[in-house]
Automatic annotation (TrEMBL), chain A:
It comes from the Bacteria. It holds the Pfam family SpoVR. This is SpoVR-like family protein. PANTHER family: STAGE V SPORULATION PROTEIN R. It comes from Desulfamplus magnetovallimortis. Residues 8-489 form the SpoVR protein-like N-terminal domain.
TrEMBL record, chain B:
Residues 88-97 have a biased composition (Acidic residues). Residues 50-110 are annotated as: Disordered. This is DUF444 family protein. InterPro entries: UPF0229, vWFA_dom_sf. It comes from the Bacteria.
Amino acid sequence: MQLIDQHVKGIMEGCKQRARDAGLSFEDESLEYIVTNRDMIELSPKVMIPTLYDYWVHDVRVISGQGMYELYPSNPYETVINTRPPISYYNDNNPDWLNVMIFYHVLGHIDFFQNNLFFKHTWDFDFNGQALADKRLIAKYRSEKGRWVDYVIEFSRAIDNLVGYHDHVAGTLRSEGKRALGKLDYYFDIFLQNEKKVIQSEYLKEIDRYNKIDHNRLEVVGKDATSQENHENGAYAANAHDKNITHDTNHGAAVDLNHIYESNGSLSGTKNGNISKEDLFLIDVRIKYPEFDSFYSRYIEKKEKSRLDVVQYILKNSEFLKKDENRWMKSVIEIIRNTSLVFQPQIRTKIMNEGWASIWHEMLFMQDDRIKGHETDFAKVNAGVTSMPKVGLNPYALGMRLFYHIMEMENRDCYSFEYFNLKDKVKRDKFDKSKKDNPGKKGLEKIFQIRENLNDFTFINSFIDQEFMDKHNLFVSGKRLNRERMSWQYYVKSRKAEDYRDMIINTLYHPPVIYVDHKKTTQGPLYLVHKFEGKPLKRDYIENTMVGIEYLWGRSVRLETSEPVAASAETPHQRFINFWNQPKPPSPSAAQPDNKKEITWKRVLYVMENRKLIKRDI
Amino acid sequence: MITLDELLEKDRKREEDGFKRKIRIGRIVKPVRGGREKIVVVPTTVEEKFVHDEISLEEEGEGESTGGTGDGQEGDVIGEEPIRPSEDGEGQGEGDGEGPGQGSGGDHEFESNAYELGKVLSEDFELPNLVDKGGKRTLVKFNYEMTDKNRGFGQILDKKATLRRIVETNMSLGNIPDPYAIDPSDFIIAPSDMIYRILSKEKSYESQALIFFLRDYSGSMGGKPTQTVVSQHVMLYSWLLYQYHKQVLTRFILHDTEAREVEDFYKYYSYKVAGGTKVVSAYRMVNEIVEKESLARDYNIYVFHGTDGDDWDTDGKEALVELEKMISYAARVGITVARHSYAKSKDTEVESYLKKSGLLEKHANLIRMDVLDEDAEDTRIIQGIKNLIS
C-alpha cells in the first residue's frame, strides 16, 4: 500500500478542477493509495478503514476472502472511504487512463459523502483518526481483559443495527438539537387536544385569543422582527421547527414538510415577536390551567427517554455496566455504536451514491481532453460497470439511469402539474417545455438537489415512474418451476412501475424497529418491543443475539415480536405484506387468481434467562 | 496474520466461557469444466442480529423476483435453466473416471484442502481414530521398475538417450563443425555421458477405502436438511481422507424415487429436484455397483446416507432387505437423518423402520444412525460423525 505517484496525482488534481467547474463540491485534500488485490482482501472486512479495531470476525473474513480469491480472482477497481481527507484505493494493475476515469467516479462519491444530508453527522470529524484511537483503546483493554473484550465487541455488534441513526442525524440537522415541541406548540397540539380534550369552539377561541395578542403586540416588537427576517431565510432547518402559529391554523406535520422544501417561501413569521407573545399568552394559560407546566415537563421527560435507542438505553441503565470492574465495557460499546452510526448512511444510499458517481464519471471523462485515444477502452469498462443485466439488479446502472431520467424529465418540465394532468400518452411523449437559452440547467439543478436531500428509499419511491420503465424496457422478472420440462423458467412478471418500485424497495436495507419499553423494564428484565412491519425476525438469530443482550444488561431480557401462525405446515402459500405501503384492497388489475392466503400473525414473547431461551404466547 | 488453527483454538475457548461456538468450517466450490471441481476450505461465521426474515411470499415453485430489462410482454418466458444440470460430459467422463488414480489438478486441490480439514477435525474436534475391520491391508506396495534413468552406471544402457547426450556434449565442445556431415568416430565420449536405466523402488498406492455417499435429493430436502447432510458428508470425507492417508475413493449417489450416480462432489452437493422419495433405490444401486465391480474384495467400504427421513416405502420392506445385504460387506453404514424442525418429536419413517428392524442393535458395529435437527450446528454435526463412525 503506497501513495499514488506524483504524475498521476497531477492528473488527478486536473480532474478535481474540471469536476469543480461542473458543479461538484468537495474539500481540497484527498489521499490516494495504490493497493494490491491482497490488500483489498485484508481491508474489506474492516470496511476498508485501515485503522479499524481488530476483531476475530474480520480475521475469519480475511481467510475466507483469500480462499475465495484463490478460486475466483477478481480485480476491484477502486474503493473510497468517507474520512477527512477522503481516502481512495486504486488497484495496482490499473493503467493511468483508467485511474482518471476512476478518479472521476471517486470524486462523485466524495461529493456525495460531503453534501448528502444523511451524512451530516460524519462531516465534522475524521473517522480514520477516530478509529485509530478506538483501535488503540481496544488493544489496551484486550491486553488487560483478554478475550472478554471480544465478547463485549460481539454482543455490542449484535445490536449495532438498532442504533437510532435517524435521530442522530436529525439531531445534527436541527439547530436546537431537540425534538420536543415548544411550550406553545405543546399547548395547542397536545395539551388542549389530548390532555384536556377541549371542544372545537373552545380550541378556536384560544387560537383567536393568541392571534389578538399578536396584533396588539406587533407594533412593539415589529422592528425586531424584520431584523430577524434575514436570519431566517436560508437556515431552513430552523424554519421547519419554528412553526408559525399566526400563519397556519392546522398544526399537521405536512406543514412542516412544506417549509423544508420551500426554503425560500416567504414566511411572515416574527421569530422574535413569538417569544414575548408566547410568554404573554402563557400567563393566562397558567392561570386557567395551573398544572400546565408540570404536564409540559413530564412530556419533555417522556420524549427524551423514549428516544434512546437500545444501545444507549443499556449504556445508561444497565446495573451490570455500572459496576466498577465493568465500566470499561461502556467505552467498547460506545465505540461499536459510533462506528455503526458512521456506516449507516452508506448502506442507505447505495443506489444513489453509485448512480451519482457513475453519471459523473461518464459526463466528466467524456469531456476531458487529456484522455483522447482511450475512448474505446473507456467504453468497454464503462459498459461493464453500468449496463443493465437481462435478469438481476445493478445499483450502478439503475442509479445512473434514474439520474439521467430525472434530468431529462425536469428539463422538459415533466414534474409539473400540467404534465401530471395530461393523460394522453402521445401528448405526454411530446411534452417539452425546456428553456430555450439554457436547456440543461434545470435538470442539473434538480439532480443536485436530490443528491443533497434524498436517500435510496425516497429516491426510488419518488422517481421510478412508468416513463422510466418504458424508456429502459424494465420489468420485474419472476422465476418459476416448470414441472414438465423440469426447469426454472424466467419470465416477465410485471412491467408496472409500482411493482418494480416495490421489488427494489424490498431489497433496501431496513433493520427492524426495536425499542425498549421503559415502563415494563423498570420491573427488572429489559423489555424489548419489536414494532411489527409485516416481516418476522429471523428466528435462528434471536437466541444468540439475546444471549449477548442479557450479558450486557446483566439480567434477563424479553423480546416481544410477531410470528406467523402455523406457517410451516398448513399455509405454504403465504402472503407477503408490503410494509411500506399499507395493505391495499385487492385491485382488479391483479389478474392471476389469488390463491395466496393471508397470514395470521400473533405476538409472542421471547424470554432469555441464564442463556436459555423460551418462547411464550402473549 | 492469524491462522485457522488459532481461530479454532479461540473458538474452543468460548465453550469454557459458556458461549456457543461461532466458527463453522465452510467451503467454496468452483465448478470447473470437465467435472473436476475445485474446493477451498475456509472458516465462516455469522454475526447474529435481529434482522427481518424473508418469509416465502410466493406460490409453491416460484422463485424470488428481481429486476430485468429487455423485450417481451408480461408473462413471456425469457429464459430457462434446467433443474438437473446437463448431463453433458458424463459420457466422456466415464473413460478416465474409472478406477483409481485420478490424480489430476482439480481433484488434487480439493484433496489437499480436504486433507487439511480432516486433520483439523481429527485433532481439534477430537474425532476418534479409525478402528479397522479385520486384517489391515498395506497401504503402499513397492515395485522395482526400470523406469528411472541414471548417468554413469546402471543396469541397461539407454542407447538413444546416451547418443543424444554425447551429441550435446560434443556440440558444446565445438566438436561438430558441420551438423550435416557428422563423423561419429570423432566424438569425444565421457563416462558421464552414458545413460542407464536403473532398477528403482517405486511406490504403488493401493486404495484402501471406498466411500459411497448417498443423498436424498427429493423436494422435501431443500434448504437446511441438504446443507446439514452435505456439511456432514464433507467432513466425513475429509476425515476419512486423513485417516487413510488420502487413499480414499468416493462414489456419489443421489436419489429421489430413483437413484443416479454422479461423478463428482460438486454435482453431488448442488443437484436438487422436486420428486418423491424411495430410499431403497439408492441402497439397491450401491449393492449393484459393489457386486458388478466386485469391490467388496478389495476395499473397506463405507456407505453414508443422508436423508430427511421421508420414505414412500413407509415400513421399509424393500430398503431393509437391501440394507442387510449391504452390511454383509460394508465396514460401516452410517445413516444421517436431518429432521425437519416441524417434525418435532415424531420418528420419521426411516427412523421407525430402522428401529423396528433391530438391525441397529444386532449389528451395532456395522450400522449406525444419527438423528439431528435440520439446523444442527457444526459441533452437533461433528458429534454426529462420532456417532456414525466410533
